[in-house]
Each structure stands twice: as structure tokens, then as C-alpha cells.
């Protein structure tokens, strides 16, 4: 879920993970036939609403020797229309002993199965009457899954080499149906009582507190939030100020790496309790001597596909997302762990308490949780400077949103593959960025009041987009808020006072829905062109799109909350651009104007006529007149405008010259983010002279900043992350002072058999240099294999993928697929890292093709993991030959093997864009580098 900035630098920006939308499969093309040959009585993907579940009573018995499980589901039903058929979900399981428990007595039900839609039909010989309640009982059995979905098996190796097994769940989005028969859609909320049969050597944990091996009944919730684990985990616990007991579970030998996460979870849950003005909404109730205990569990799972999962009351994580070693984990690790915990705990309100009606509005869950990571950490962990990293999320979203194969934030989906594909940068990152834009526009106070109103109004219910916009409109006229929230009463009493920072004082009634529908119901984002003529500022908007077909940009219009400042005034001015073109007037003529202040808005700005030259002069002579976010957004924008022919490459490169004086992490890393991909494209072609010239220019540009870095762990989190970034880049690029120092440190570390302690933040640079030789690589691998420190293993694994030794690269991918020594959950990172290595990109492409069918079975069609591999391996190709090779492979697939995935269309578009860029800009690049005499050769890896 969280890609470290180090990987971005080392391998270039990753194409966003997403996927493709199939034609509407909501209805079967032919009348469906059940597996026994009878007609199946329902022909749609979505379940009928004739009945709904009220309560599930589940008994589950997993066997960790035979790796299968059996169970009984007893489901209480509410009947909304007379019917003799109950349609529900079950996937790849044996169903037996299906009974209807009616007031008139118990009788068997006939069972039909439609595997295509994962549906069961339970047929009654008498009518179930509207308004009455019934129960059905189903026996079920299945194998524990070999993937990372459903009820699946996981394993870990102890320090003595013993392999131990456990079973865990991952039900989002449509995988609960593989663990027990259920109504597996988010709107079918119900209560769950879960009983797990296990061996004495194991423990069981689930959403609720344990009552003598029976878990208490849950609150009303969606199936995808149900969770249970059978393992030999140990736990540590603390209680929050609000009285919630928080426990962290991990394998026994890693329980000592949980202290940081435990403290973070306590601090963040207290923050959310206060911020949302709603107590933690899952009482894991244990009544004991009249006490009622509230609890939240977090578990580190040895095998886990995504970053983490927000199961209500039992959030689950990759081990790297939860385990922290104070002596060996880096500043990036601390940032990543706090962000992922903040994200999953925010979901306890956004997603769990209030759930989207259907997966088309997934962003209401994920966009909010991503957004709240930054709101919560800014207050609870100010020392992490989380604001330094938010912009990167918006840039990542824009990368996918600039393709014609993007999709609206809220978009229709029907089948499981389409649903999986919603878990992408548009739902998460664009969702967060448009919420940030709205918060800035409405003011943080008004926004906070509105979302509290939303959560209180729709607690334990399902929502659609419009419910949120209604809650953010007329916030001061609502009685949904407690009288006790004084700051909100104060805000509302003052809201008519004019303020340049707010639109709430305006005589115009704000139509939040009209504004935000333009951001959620159409794909893409606007490019605002600014022309300054004296005091007159002419504005126009169009869709920013990387395409050579101008017709694809027509018909788009946004309501854009513009912000701007000028050379004459640091006041932030606001203007809502509702039309294709408009004009605003400045009080006086100015030297420069900067729109989208701090890039609080999800749009790009093009400064026409002489506008970019004014910006370049400002950056060259007084770059601190603008904030680091403003500088980062200008760097990002000017290079993106090169891609669509609005700005010449030499103009963008002239702007980049100021970076030799830049010190702030956001602007520095964005400079790398725009310049590094230029030579990464060349690495896939035979053009070493220009490639090395470009590498030389980047090294020279940042040489001063690199030389000032200490090889220690001193400084703030942002300074430490930047140090890791810069030294890693310098070593990979063979900058002599860096290579010399890293070689010396690696040799010392190797001579001590890995016992001396290296400064954490410089270890990636040291490991990368050490992994260049067979002896160094083998030593690093031995340390990797025996380490119990997850963050150290992660850095070692990445460093090993940067080696020039092709046999090692190939071996790593094969081993990761097998999963014995290197876990298969890490395979996607390994494959993409190898593809970024100039010695490995062909190996990664060959591996992806050769193992395609195994990969889609393990990681699931449409998943962000498959998309990440597809785009990560291919998005630096820039030749017709490679485009044809990519088209040939993906074109040979069937719908069942992924031919309809959106990520394949994105791959074609990205390579075509790369080809256009190279054809247009290589001569300009060559001429500009010659003119500036930045000489190579800088030998590559």
C-alpha cells in the first residue's frame, strides 16, 4: 500500500496500479444453467433484494494439518417480498445439509449453483412470506486458499528454521463468499456471531472479543469486514485515554518489534475519537463486574498481499506495515508504519461505521482514509512532517488520470474483476486530493463540521456520493451536531464575517454537489491556462490528456476552486472558475502570478506567453519567495506540459537549473521524479552517450546537496529520508565519493560478519554497492535469509535487485515465486525492481510472460498487484518494437486470463506516449545538454 520514496528514485516513477472495465456483465447473455443442468432462477451479477440477512451464526473449523476447513452457517433473514427462492453467494465450496428453519418447522431446501456469478439458489417448496423472518442453515467445506484472499493459509519460519502454519482472512472486496455462504455485497449489512474450533496450541482472534472461544456478536456490518485468524501469535496491549484496549498480535519471535505500532495506534485512536466526535464505534464488549471493555486488535500477518486491511476491530497488516525496530528501522519505516495505521484506523469510521452503498463509490472509503492519514499525522506526529509527502500522492494520481483509459472517481462496476480494479490511485490518491481541495475551499472548520455531520447521520448505514455533499452543505443549519462542540458553534456564529480564506461569507449559496460532481463523475483533471495582460488575467480550462487525438479532450468542464498569489501580495486570493473561459482583474500590474497555491487544488496551470519565463526568473533569483510545495508543483507541471507540447523541453530544463540551490525534500524529489525518467527511457535503447550525459547533468545539479550529506542518522524525518534518497542515487550513479565511502562501510560490515551497526538511513546505499559483486551479494543474501527484522530484510531485498549480476536477478524472481526463502508476497516488488535495473528489464518482461497464468491465479485478476506488475514492468519502454511485443503478448490473452484489464490499455497508452516524447524531444535534449556542457561519462551500473 505504501511505496517508499527510495524505490521511486531508484527505479523511476511507477505507473499507477489500476485496471480495465469489462462490458456490462450485470446480466447473463444466455439464461444461466446450474451445475446440475437445471435452469438457474436468477440471471444477474448483483443479488436480488427480496431477502436480506439480519444475523449470521458461524461455526468454523480450520485444519492446519490438512489445510482445509468445515463449518455451519445459520443465517437469519428478513423477507421483503413474497418469494420461494433465496439467492446468495458461495465460491468454490461444498455445500451440504441446507435447511429452512421456519415457524412451521424445519425442512430441506433444494440447492442450485451458478459458479460464473458465485451464486447459490436455495429453493423452497412453499412461499416465504413478506414481513416474516426465517432462518437458513448450510453446511460448508473448502480448502484453505493458496492465494491471499478468502480464508487462506500462511506460514513463517522461526530462527531455528522450523516452518509454522496459520490461517487468516482477507475478504475485501468479494472474497467472503469463499469462506462461508453469505450475501457478499456491502449494502447487506448484518450482525455476526462467530465460533472457531481450534487446537489448544493455537489462539483465535476475530472482530469481537472472545467469550469462552465464542466471539461476541458484532455490530451491524458488511461481509467484507469480517475477519478471523487462527495462529500461535503473541500479543501486547495498552489502553487509550478513552478506555479502548488496543492489542498488537505478531509471531512470537517478532513481538518485541510491536512497541512503536502500539503507541501509534493508541495515539491515533484517541485523535479520531476526538476529531470525529464519535467514540470508537466497535465495542468489543466483555461484561465483567459491570465493566464494559472496548478493544481494537492489530495483527501482523506473515503472508499478506496488500499493505493492510481495515476489518472492523481486527485490522490486519503486512509485517513491514506494523513491525518496527528502534535500532534498525529507518525514518521512512516510521513514516510508513504510522501512515498505514492511521489509514486503517480512519476506516473504522469511514468505511466501517459508514459504508459505501456499492463499490462504484469505493473512494468514499479509500479516498477519505488516505486523506485522514495526513490530517491525523499532521497533528499527532508533527515531527514526521507528513505534509512533505502529500503532494506526491496527487502527482501519482495525475499520472493515471492523464490517460484516456482513466475512470471517474465514482464509476459503474459489476463483476469482481471490475471491483478489484477500483482499488487504484484514482480511488485512493485522487480521492484524497479532491477532498483536500474541498477542505481548503470550504475552510478546515466547515469541512470538519460537515464530515462529522455525515458520519453521525449515516452511522451503521450505506451511502452514495450525494449524501456526503448534502452533509457539507448548509452545515450551520443542522441539528445533527452535539451542542457541546463549542468550536463549531463559534465557527457558525462567525461565518458571515468576510475573509479572504473562505467562500462561506459569499452571498452566493455554495452548491457543493454541483462543484464536486464535476470532480467525481468525470475522469481526468483540468489544465488551466493563464494569460496575464497588464492587470487582466485571462483564464481558460481544458482536460489535460496525454494523447495525439485532440477530440478526446472535448466536452469536459470542471468547477475549479482557483487560488492565486502575486509578486505584489502574499495574500491567497480565491476564484471559482465555473466556465470554459473567464477573466479576473488584479489591483495592479505584477511581475509574476502563481496559481494553485501550495497545489491545494487537483489541477495543473500553464502560464502562456511570457509566464513561464517570469516563473523561471523568480526561481533563479529568489526561489524561497514560493513555498516548497509551490516549487515542487511548478517542476511537476512544466515537465508534464512538455509531454503534451504546451512547453518546450528546453524551457523545462532551464527551470530545473535552479535545483542546484534547492534543499527541501518535496522539491528535490520532484526534480528527480521528472529528470530520472528521461534517462530511464534511454536505458531501454542503445544510446549510451546521451544517456550518460543526462545522468551526468543530474549528478552535477545535485552535487552540492549530495556532498553536504552526513553518513549518519541525524536530523528531522524529512532530512533523513532525503539523505537516504540522495546517497542511494549518488551510489547507483557511481558518484566517486559516494561509492568510495559505501564500499569502505560495506567491507567493514562484512568483515564483522554483519555485527557492526551501520547508520540506518545510509544502509540502502551501502547494500547496493555491496551487492555488485558475487561475494557481496551472497553475503547480503545470507543476512537477509537469517534476519528477523522486517525493515532490514526489505532494504536488503531491494538492494539485491539492483545488482548487475543477471543470474542473481533471475534467481531472485524464481525464488520469490516459489516462496520458500523469499516470500511470494514480495514477488511484485522484486519483479518491478528488476525491471527498473538496466541489466534486468528484459528478464522481468520474460518472467512476467512465462509465469502469467500462475501470477493471475495467485494475485487475482484486476488486483492492484497485477496492475502494478504489468505497468511497472512495461512503462519505461519507448520503441515500436517493444510496443508490438507487448501488444502481441497481451493480445493473445482471453477474457478469463485478463485481456480486458484496464492496466493493459494503460500500458499501451503509456508506451505510445513515451514513443511520442522520444521522437519529439531527443534532438532538443541533445542540443540543450551540449550547450550546457555537462560532460560524462558517468558509468552506469
Structure write-up:
The protein is α+β, with helices and mostly antiparallel strands and 941 residues long. Among the domains are: 182 residues, tricorn interacting facor f3 domain (Immunoglobulin-like); 128 residues, Orthogonal Bundle (Neutral Protease, domain 2), CATH 1.10.390; 247 residues, Zincin-like fold (Alpha Horseshoe), CATH 1.25.50. 39% of the residues lie in helices and 20% in strands. It has a six-stranded mixed sheet, with no helix packed on it. It has a five-stranded mixed sheet with strand order 16-17-20-22-21, with helices on one face. The chain is globular and about 90 Å long.
Write the layout of secondary structure elements.
Blueprint: H1 5-11, E1 51-63, E2 68-79, E3 83-89, E4 94-102, E5 105-108, E6 110-114, E7 119-128, E8 133-143, E9 150-157, E10 163-170, E11 191-196, E12 203-206, E13 210-211, E14 214-215, E15 228-231, E16 234-239, E17 244-250, H2 259-275, E18 287-288, E19 291-292, E20 294-301, E21 308-309, E22 314-318, H3 331-346, E23 354-356, H4 363-380, H5 387-401, H6 416-421, H7 425-442, H8 444-457, E24 461-463, H9 465-471, H10 486-494, H11 512-520, E25 526-533, E26 536-543, E27 560-566, E28 569-577, E29 581-585, E30 593-595, E31 604-607, H12 611-622, H13 628-643, H14 649-656, H15 665-683, H16 688-707, H17 717-732, H18 736-751, H19 763-770, H20 774-786, H21 790-800, H22 806-818, H23 827-836, H24 841-850, H25 852-859, H26 864-874, H27 880-891, H28 902-932
Parallel strand pairs: 1-11, 17-20, 20-22, 23-24, 25-31
Antiparallel strand pairs: 1-2, 2-8, 3-7, 4-5, 4-8, 6-7, 9-10, 12-15, 13-14, 16-17, 18-19, 21-22, 25-26, 26-29, 27-28, 27-30
Amino acid at each position: 500500500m505504501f511505496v517508499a520514496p527510495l524505490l521511486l528514485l531508484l527505479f523511476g516513477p511507477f505507473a499507477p496500479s489500476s485496471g480495465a472495465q469489462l462490458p456490462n456483465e450485470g446480466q447473463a447473455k444466455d439464461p444461466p444453467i446450474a451445475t446440475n443442468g437445471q435452469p438457474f432462477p436468477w440471471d444477474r451479477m448483483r443479488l436480488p433484494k427480496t431477502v436480506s440477512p439480519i444475523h449470521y451464526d458461524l461455526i468454523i473449523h480450520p485444519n492446519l494439518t490438512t489445510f482445509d476447513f468445515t463449518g455451519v452457517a445459520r443465517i437469519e433473514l428478513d423477507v421483503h417480498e413474497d418469494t420461494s427462492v433465496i439467492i446468495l453467494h458461495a465460491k468454490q465450496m461444498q455445500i451440504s445439509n441446507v435447511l429452512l428453519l421456519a415457524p412451521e418447522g424445519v425442512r430441506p431446501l433444494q440447492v442450485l449453483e451458478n459458479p460464473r456469478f458465485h451464486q447459490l439458489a436455495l429453493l423452497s417448496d412453499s412461499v416465504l412470506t413478506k414481513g416474516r423472518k426465517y432462518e437458513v442453515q448450510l453446511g460448508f467445506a473448502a480448502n484453505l486458499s493458496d492465494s491471499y484472499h478468502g480464508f487462506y493459509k500462511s506460514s513463517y519460519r522461526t530462527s531455528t528454521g522450523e516452518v509454522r502454519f496459520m490461517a487468516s482472512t482477507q475478504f475485501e472486496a468479494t472474497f467472503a463468499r469463499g469462506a462461508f455462504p453469505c450475501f457478499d455485497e456491502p449494502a447487506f449489512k448484518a450482525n455476526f456471531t462467530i465460533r472457531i474450533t481450534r487446537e489448544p496450541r493455537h489462539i483465535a482472534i476475530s472482530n469481537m472479543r472472545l467469550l469462552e472461544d465464542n466471539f461476541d456478536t458484532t455490530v451491524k456490518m458488511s461481509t467484507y469486514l469480517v475477519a478471523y485468524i487462527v495462529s500461535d501469535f503473541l500479543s501486547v496491549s495498552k489502553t487509550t485515554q478513552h478506555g479502548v484496549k488496543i492489542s498488537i498480535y505478531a509471531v512470537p519471535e517478532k513481538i518485541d518489534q510491536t512497541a512503536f505500532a502500539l503507541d501509534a495506534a493508541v495515539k491515533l485512536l484517541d485523535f479520531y475519537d476526538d476529531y470525529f466526535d464519535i467514540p470508537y464505534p466497535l465495542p468489543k464488549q466483555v461484561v465483567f463486574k459491570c465493566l464494559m471493555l472496548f478493544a481494537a486488535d492489530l495483527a501482523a500477518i506473515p503472508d499478506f498481499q496488500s499493505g493492510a486491511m481495515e476489518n472492523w476491530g481486527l485490522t490486519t497488516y503486512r509485517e513491514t506495515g506494523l513491525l518496527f525496530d528502534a535500532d534498525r528501522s529507518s525514518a521512512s519505516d516510521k513514516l510508513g508504519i504510522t501512515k498505514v495505521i492511521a489509514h486503517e484506523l480512519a476506516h473504522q469510521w469511514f468505511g466501517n461505521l459508514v459504508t459505501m452503498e456499492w463499490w462504484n463509490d469505493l473512494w468514499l472509503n479509500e479516498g477519505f482514509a488516505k486523506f485522514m492519514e495526513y490530517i491525523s499525522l499532521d497533528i499527532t506526529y508533527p515531527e514526521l512532517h507528513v505534509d512533505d509527502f502529500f503532494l506526491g500522492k496527487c502527482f501519482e494520481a495525475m499520472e493515471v488520470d492523464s490517460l484516456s483509459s482513466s475512470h471517474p472517481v465514482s464509476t459503474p462496476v459489476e463483476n469482481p474483476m471490475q471491483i478489484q480494479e477500483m482499488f487504484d490511485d484514482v480511488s485512493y490518491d485522487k480521492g484524497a486530493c479532491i477532498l483536500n481541495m474541498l477542505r481548503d475551499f470550504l475552510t478546515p472548520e466547515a469541512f470538519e463540521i460537515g464530515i462529522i455531520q455525515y458520519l453521525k447521520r449515516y452511522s451503521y448505514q450505506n451511502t452514495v456520493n450525494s449524501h456526503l455533499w448534502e452533509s457539507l452543505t448548509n452545515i450551520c443549519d443542522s441539528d445533527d451536531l452535539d451542542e457541546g462542540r463549542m468550536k463549531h458553534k463559534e465557527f457558525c456564529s462567525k461565518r458571515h464575517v468576510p475573509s479572504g480564506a473562505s467562500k462561506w461569507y459569499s452571498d452566493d449559496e455554495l452548491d457543493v454537489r454541483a462543484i464536486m460532481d464535476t470532480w467525481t463523475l468525470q475522469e481526468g483533471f483540468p489544465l488551466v491556462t493563464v494569460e496575464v495582460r497588464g492587470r487582466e488575467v485571462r483564464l481558460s480550462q481544458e482536460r489535460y490528456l496525454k494523447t495525439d487525438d485532440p477530440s478526446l479532450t472535448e466536452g469536459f468542464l470542471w468547477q475549479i476552486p482557483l487560488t492565486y498569489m502575486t509578486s505584489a501580495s502574499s495574500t491567497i486570493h480565491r476564484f471559482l472558475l465555473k466556465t470554459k473561459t473567464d477573466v479576473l482583474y488584479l489591483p495592479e500590474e505584477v511581475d509574476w502570478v502563481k496559481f494553485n497555491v501550495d497545489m491545494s487544488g487537483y489541477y495543473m496551470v500553464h502560464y502562456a506567453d511570457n509566464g513561464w519565463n517570469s516563473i523561471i526568473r523568480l526561481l533563479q533569483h529568489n526561489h524561497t519567495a514560493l513555498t516548497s510545495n509551490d516549487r515542487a508543483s511548478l517542476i511537476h507541471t512544466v515537465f508534464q506540459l512538455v509531454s503534451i507540447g504546451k512547453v518546450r523541453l528546453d524551457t523545462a530544463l532551464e527551470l530545473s537549473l535552479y535545483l542546484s540551490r534547492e534543499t527541501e525534500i518535496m522539491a528535490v524529489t520532484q526534480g528527480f521524479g521528472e529528470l530520472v525518467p528521461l534517462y530511464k527511457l534511454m536505458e531501454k535503447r542503445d544510446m549510451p552517450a546521451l544517456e550518460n550525459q543526462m545522468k551526468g547533468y543530474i549528478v552535477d545539479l545535485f552535487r552540492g546537496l549530495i556532498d553536504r550529506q552526513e553518513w549518519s542518522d541525524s536530523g528531522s524525518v524529512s532530512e533523513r529520508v532525503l539523505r537516504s534518497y540522495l546517497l542511494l542515487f549518488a551510489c547507483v550513479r557511481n558518484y566517486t565519493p559516494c561509492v568510495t565511502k559505501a564500499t569502505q562501510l560495506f567491507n567493514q560490515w562484512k568483515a564483522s560478519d554483519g555485527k557492526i551497526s551501520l547508520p540506518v538511513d545510509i544502509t540502502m546505499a551501502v547494500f547496493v554497492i555491496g551487492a555488485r559483486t558475487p561475494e557481496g551479494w551472497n553475503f547480503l543474501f545470507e543476512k537477509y535469509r537469517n534476519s528477523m527484522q522486517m525493515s532490514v530484510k526489505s532494504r536488503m531485498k531491494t538492494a539485491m535487485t539492483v545488482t548487475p549480476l543477471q543470474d542473481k536477478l533471475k534467481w531472485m524472481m524464481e525464488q520469490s515465486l516459489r516462496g520458500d526463502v523469499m516470500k511470494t508476497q514480495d514477488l511484485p516488488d522484486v519483479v518491478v525492481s528488476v525491471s527498473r535495473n538496466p541489466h534486468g528489464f528484459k528478464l522481468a518482461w520474460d518472467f512476467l510472460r512465462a509465469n502469467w497464468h500462475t501470477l493471475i491465479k495467485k494475485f487475482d485478476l484486476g488486483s492492484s498487484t497485477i496492475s502494478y506488475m504489468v505497468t511497472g514492468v512495461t512503462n519505461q519502454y519507448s520503441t515500436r518494437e517493444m510496443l508490438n511485443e507487448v501488444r502481441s503478448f497481451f493480445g493473445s490473452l482471453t477474457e478469463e486470463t485478463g485481456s480486458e484489464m484496464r492496466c493493459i490499455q494503460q500500458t499501451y497508452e503509456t508506451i505510445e506516449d513515451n514513443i511520442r516524447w522520444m521522437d519529439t524531444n531527443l534532438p532538443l535534449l541533445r542540443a540543450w545538454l551540449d550547450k550546457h556542457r555537462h560532460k560524462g561519462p558517468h558509468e552506469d551500473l
